Amino acid sequence: MPALPAIGTRVTVRYRRPAGSTPPLTDVVGHVVDVGVALGIRTKRGTVVRVDLDDVVAIKEVPAAPVRTAEIRNVEHAAALAWPGVEQEWLGGWLLRAAGGHTHRGNSAVPLRFDAGATAIPAIVSWYGERGLTPWLSIPDRLFRPTEASPHLETEVMTSDLSDTATEAGVVLTETPDADWLHLYRRAVPVDVLTAVIDGEVAFATIPGAAVGRAAVTTAPCGRRWVGLSAVRVDEQARGRGLARALCSTLLGWGAQRGATGGYAQVLVDNAVALGLYRSMGFQKQHRSRYVDARSL
């Protein structure tokens, strides 16, 4: 049997079909999500094909499928609606969000429309200045090309088609974060910021005394429903037990029940543990984003 690829690798696999099948061999292309008893391959349609290792004839790594700018724009739009702060305004193709300074994501302007350009930046600086906030720009790949500036909090945006998601025993879902959730999260983010969502739904997952996470379902301009994972935290004493995976699986399942066909997570590029978790769950890098102080442009 050929050497097995790492989870997250995009491959083409040739394998034997059941005895008597015509043709006797077939192929599947997708990302590796499991290398256990069987090889699990998630196709671009989100279906997971499982191939018995004894039936594998050949495996070849293939380049990642090209990402269109429209796909980046759709995911960024859904993500902005999922964490919009408590005040929003459209300005020259940018969506401006404010949340009293709580989180960069909730206090930044993101270029979502085709007309988003540099001419709006002075007005953006003024808008945030009136609120006593740093005028952060959240700049995804391709959607805006600033002049030379120092990026802050480089982030990898990972996506996955949803399939085989299920609720895990022991995970409690609520519409708002309760006292246990807030205690485990250990960040002083107001509840109105955490629960804010535009034209969507939000849920909070808790493994009592051990771990928490948040998810929001929103709709991209193309009409596709996305579920975004955020605020995932496992207590230090409870790490290494698969709790983050259980939380995320449950939240993805919750999103799928509400019509989401894709999932995404925004992870700092130096967070190797989180990146590894999401890759093992079938997520792949779609693009990167970073924050830039608009006053530096």
Strand coverage percent: 35-45%
CATH superfamily of the largest domain: Gcn5-related N-acetyltransferase (GNAT)
Radius of gyration computed on alpha carbons:
21 Å
pLDDT under 50 segments (min length 5)?
none
The CATH topology label of the largest domain is: Aminopeptidase
Tell me the helix content: 10-25%
Which structural category do the helix and sheet elements fall into? Answer: alpha+beta
Order of helices and strands: EEEEEHEEEHEEEHHEEEHEHE
Tally of helical segments:
6
User: Which sequence of strands runs across the widest sheet?
Assistant: 6-7-8-9-16-10-15-14-13-12-11
User: Which word captures the global form?
Assistant: globular
What is the terminal-to-terminal distance? Answer: 55 Å
Q: How many runs of DSSP E, i.e. beta strands? A: 16
Description:
- The protein has 297 residues and is of the alpha+beta class.
- It has three domains: 10-61, SH3 type barrels (Roll), CATH 2.30.30; 69-154 and 290-296, no CATH class; 158-287, Aminopeptidase (3-Layer(aba) Sandwich), CATH 3.40.630.
- Helix content is 20%, strand content 37%.
- It has six helices and 16 strands.
- It has an eleven-stranded mixed sheet with strand order 6-7-8-9-16-10-15-14-13-12-11. Strands 4-3-2-1-5 form a five-stranded antiparallel sheet, with no helix packed on it.
Could you give a quick summary of the protein structure above?
This protein is of the alpha+beta class and 297 residues long.
List the helices and strands and how they pair.
Layout: E1 10-16, E2 25-35, E3 38-42, E4 48-52, E5 56-61, H1 69-82, E6 87-91, E7 94-98, E8 108-111, H2 121-130, E9 136-140, E10 152-161, E11 172-174, H3 179-185, H4 191-194, E12 201-207, E13 211-219, E14 225-234, H5 243-257, E15 262-268, H6 272-280, E16 284-293
Parallel strand pairs: 8-9, 14-15
Antiparallel strand pairs: 1-2, 1-5, 2-3, 3-4, 6-7, 7-8, 9-16, 10-15, 10-16, 11-12, 12-13, 13-14
